[in-house]
Fold each of these.
Amino acid sequence: MRRFSVITLFPELLTAFAGVGIVRRACERGLIDIQLLNPRDFAADARRSVDDNAYGGGPGMVMMVQPLRRAIAAARRTAPAGVHVVYLSPQGRTLSQPTLPLLERHPHLVLLAGRYEGVDERLIEQDIDEEWSLGDFVLSGGEIAAMAVIDALTRRLPGALGDERSALADSFEHGLLDFPHYTRPEIVDGQEVPAVLLSGNHAAIALWRRQQALVRTWRRRPDLLVNCVLSAADRALLDKCLSEPQGGSKDAQS
Ligand code: 9WO
């Protein structure tokens, strides 16, 4: 079982998240366990203080070392084999589908979700193993990033997805963007489903989807193709589509 301990001043956010969809089912099936720790429960004073003014002045509060250190220690006590402590912040290394396995190595992650202006640097120095970021933007706190980590790792666990479909079929797993999807009706407000998808020709459908994924990636995220070794068949699919007038249709930027 994969374990997550989330240290957060707003555990109710994580409770709601853990109560729906794939993550909920993974909890019910015993594939994952999510432990919530509120730094307020580890505060030393009667006011249950968890933040204070910043040394050096300026507006905004900083999360204090002791409540966080004691919350991390509490998570450690439930983990005989040890934990890997992660702070979610814009200063961290950027998480991506290819970097997820680095977190997957650790069966018990402690995810620290900061609030305010962040946490006292001495906690990061002494208690944090790694800092990870979702990308170059600032949130109001680390909870959404913690949920993103749990979600992305959980759906990769064998048996977590409802059907027998593999998570490997999803966007990114082959280094390409996803192909377009369609469902009923066949025509909606004059918009038709591509005929090949109605043909029943499974080989032709697979080829079309691969081609769509290649063209989309080429047009929207050419950076992803740089590190992607395309087979001769993929090259041919891409070249054929790009040479057609309107090839790849509305993905065209120019
Ligand atoms: C607040 C702030 C206020 C004035 C000037 C600069 C500032 N930076 C921050 C800040 O980074 N606050 C963080 C809020 C403190 C740590 C938790 N917070 C957080 C995590 N915001 N965004 C993230 C995050 C985490 C992972 N991936 C993307 C964003």
Note: The mean pLDDT is 94.
Amino acid sequence: MCLVVVVVYSLTLLLPLGQASLPLVINTWPFKDATGAAWGALQSGGSVLDAVEKGCARCEADQCDGSVGYGGSPDENGETTLDAMIMNGDTMEVGAVADLRRIKNAVGVARAVMERTTHTMLVGESASLFAENMGFTAEDLTTNKSLNIFSEWLKGNCQPNYRKNVFPDPSAHCGPYKPRATVRDKQMRRHANVNSHDTIGMIAIDQAGHVAAGTSTNGLTHKVPGRVGDSPIAGAGAYADSSVGGAAATGDGDVMMRFLPSYLAVEQMRAGADPSTACKTAISRIKRHYADFFGAIICANTTGHYGAACNKVAGFSTFFYMVSNPETDKPALLSVDCF
Ligand code: SD4
């Protein structure tokens, strides 16, 4: 990540924090090309949904930091599976896919769920079949890199993993696992940490105040097959309401999805909080229960104000995010100190 940040710093304009202007694109992490793709979509007359879809799709194609799209975060079987969502803040429609296999363009499939069904979310093999029927190409999401991550993990006795209260002891052995007779409530196994991050979450707001938000991720490396995180869950991974604004989150989805941080942030803005304060409130709510959770959130309102917040933990004291608006001209890298 450090190298990425340095490179992005040198390629982007640093913007004085929080200058409000519309239209606006804001996204998690220094994924500059994704911001540019979304901004380009708006500039060429596309809708905010087009912007979010194009921005997230760019990350899926570029494998942003290995945490979005194909070839990243292999699960316990070595397979890459994708989660994504998109939300229309005008209509409150959502399209989402989770545990999507063999299809690279997860956010595109999410949009198809929204626009070509009356459902909100499709999962697993059936989501892949739906995607194929909608014209998306099925292909192997495995790469040499993901194969290598997987084989190194197997060689290292499947460490780390996300199992607890099973035998053989998951802190020393691979599965298959069986439930242990007793469940130790206090047994804390590993949660996602600063090394398993970088989901793209994006908000786009046009001049007229139309809001869309979305996410795309390949989740967590070595996750239990079938695991779905916060990213495709409306209100958790992202939320949009054109009468207020939008929010999008990144981090330990297993913890964060219990608090619907994106929904909370939007509701805080509805109640009058500025975006930075709304973002902080969403993080604080989680902190109360999980002081050491890894996570961050971006928030923006329909006046073009925006902000971000993150939970300070070892190895994560600054969160980088991207903004494009008429003040920046090109994508600008911003940061916020975690608290
Ligand atoms: C997940 N929230 O699947 C995603 C991962 C992530 O930054 O955001 N990492 O839990």
Note: The chain is about 30% helix and 25% strand.
Amino acid sequence: MTAVRTETKAEPAAATSFPPGFVWGAATAAYQVEGAAAEDGRTPSIWDTFSHTPGKVRNGDTGDIAADHYHRYRDDVALMKDLGLGAYRFSISWSRVQPTGRGPAVERGLDFYRRLTDELLEAGITPVATLYHWDLPQELEDAGGWPQRDTAHRFADYAEIMGRALGDRVGLWTTLNEPWCSAFLGYGSGVHAPGRTDPAATLRAAHHLNLGHGLAVGALRANLPASAQTSITLNLHQVRPLTDSPEDAEAARRIDAVGNRVFTGPVLDGVYPDDLMADTAHLVDWAELVHDGDLAEISRPIDVLGVNYYAPTVVSAGDGTGTKNDGHGASDHSPWTGSDHVDFHLANDQLTAMNWAIDPDGLYTLLTDLAASHPQLPLMVTENGAAFDDYVSPEGLVNDPQRIAYLHAHLEAVRRAVADGADVRGYFLWSLLDNFEWSYGYSKRFGAVYVDYSTQRRIPKESAHWYAGVIRRNALPAAGQE
Ligand code: FCB
């Protein structure tokens, strides 16, 4: 496949360099870092309810305090500045801004994001805001949640509020983070909030997330300066058949449909794929679900596509007993709605602490495939990183060579994709800080910066210093210069 170059893409200078102006960032999400769960008018989101439900999150951990970013954001921005970050991708807690998910905004909630973005701008760091990183206001879930069409309209109202409040200082907006997880893990396998296990509700949620995205792009556009950019972040599965048998190819087709094209189809191309609708026709009446005009709304142009990548997805025809290796947590209910007979496999035995296979080629393939299928669409790696069992040495250091190797290999994959024509504009490491890793609680550490949760002390890991060097040079270290 030959990827097509876009006019704006610059030529990389040397074998280890990134294009001039390449955006170097780190990412977090509101519920995972903020804490202050009941302060300044914030009400519970579905993740507050879920994490407070016994048995849902490892060790009974909750995001009540998390990394206390709500109170420590100034120090955290100073840390970002020390590392030389060019951009910070954070998310906004909807129920901090609109406690019931509807109606007027709470100024105290908005003020936090005004203070945070001001602090970033003063430090010379570009704020990148995500409107929704999985934390639906509980009141909206009580009214039916994402399976309910009205939620998409509530989301558009919230987008309008945020566009008005921060449009003068935030230039890049992401509507949804990984709607696949919201729909398929939240309403399908139930390993994420709100913990429902209903295949029809899952597909309805997916469509209303798509609709919410489109409506939100419209609401943002109407309230943002023309220079502002809009995007959505998808966790596209880099799907590979286990063997070249026709049965495994069919399994790969099905998982690509229900894992990827359920979003890329309507958002990028304005259609739901026929094969997806056929695979799931026994679960949902698509003609009833998708109203006239929805697809035009959903496919409003975006400026950038955010791509999150951690590991590839290897599949074979099976009976669904091999679902545990899909990387999305254990459940008796498959998240692969309509294709729950497919089995999943690890791509290799080089695993992170999440038991995800380390496979940088998957990122290269994802980016170059997107460049080939959508050559005019700029891309941004909005999350990539790894959890390992980090600890503080007696000298007070956190030495994490495995994370450095992971980042190096994946950044090399990004650089190669750029060299081969993919228009990748930036890279955000997941995560700036160790944080609340959803159903794994605090047991998994993804941060470039270690957080001692008993004191909230921050200790930049060796990988943070390594990443700072990459940013400074806009290049990877050459061999022998690590
Ligand atoms: C992604 C999520 C992010 C984090 C990483 C490890 O799916 O967007 O919040 O949990 O995985």
Note: The CA atoms of residues 431 and 447 lie 5 Å apart.
Amino acid sequence: MIIIMKHGSSEEEKGHVIDRLTALGYGSNVSGVEQTVIGAIGVLDRDREGLLEQLGALPYVERVVPVLKRYKLASREFQPTPTIVKVGKAGQGVTIGGDSLVVMAGPCSVESREQLMETAQAVRDAGATMLRGGAYKPRTSPYEFQGYGMEGLEILAEARERFGLPVVTEVMDPHDVETVCRYADMLQIGARNMQNYTLLREVGRARTPVLLKRGGMYPTIENWLLAAEYILAGGNTDVVLCERGLPPYGDTNLRRNVLDLTAIPIVKELSHLPVIADPSHGTGKSALVPPLARASITVGADGLMIEVHPQPERALSDGAQSLDIPAFERLMRTLPALAAVEGRRMAGAGVTA
Ligand code: PEP
Ligand code: MN
């Protein structure tokens, strides 16, 4: 439920409401620009009616409203102001959300030290603000390249130190969460795992930001936000959503997935969480990546995830959708003007957080 304070309520009055919630064992989240909104976290059904009445009777409370949606912490009702997620070490980090636009770029998989270093340097020089790369790869066939695991994580951490880009990488197994947190700045939950509730609970316990891709068995917008709710309910408030396309009805030779651009403004209205777009997995074809990347910005995405490989034709995974370095550089040159039209600026590593 949310407690909407009257205009001009004092800090002390807000404190009273928060203390009352704390005394009952509930958390609170304060937001709102014009008017303070206090979100009560974890209110049990048995307390709801009583609290609605008691808090609603306070002279400095305008009204108390139950959040009716199934996802609560992820909803705009609970927190009207957009969440800004900080990723990476203070002073070197990147912020996601608000008016900045983040670009996460890198290969689908970490294939070798040389491949990752070359890509990291190129994407950083072209203006990317985060480095992506998979060490644990969810592959459809067990005979396909599965990623280099720990070795891949070490290479990613080395690239982060060398090029100053925070790193995002996928975690697939709940048992690996602690380890991946030691190497990565952001944990990616892949599309196949959006409804892996054991994994969602585990990353909810972590204090490393999470990139939650849309997918799973029923990749509806509501289920996506409910998946985010699992993470938020565990106490990890740094969740960024990622639209990465849904399987098409046909013509799979023409595109692997259909990037759902409508989901971006819809989710931004329903939720305060930042949303980025992944036009690489969202199309599966490198030629479609630049136009869909630009379209994503136009519909309000807070950033992009782009697969880049120095030699896409030799990539061990997702070569067909990876941009080569010159194509990535061309795409990046078109983004600042587009960002400006949307009232945004390109995020800069080491500048914003
Ligand atoms: C990836 O980012 O390389 C990946 C496997 O993504 P998705 O989970 O969206 O398929
Ligand atoms: Mn990939």
Note: The mean pLDDT is 95.
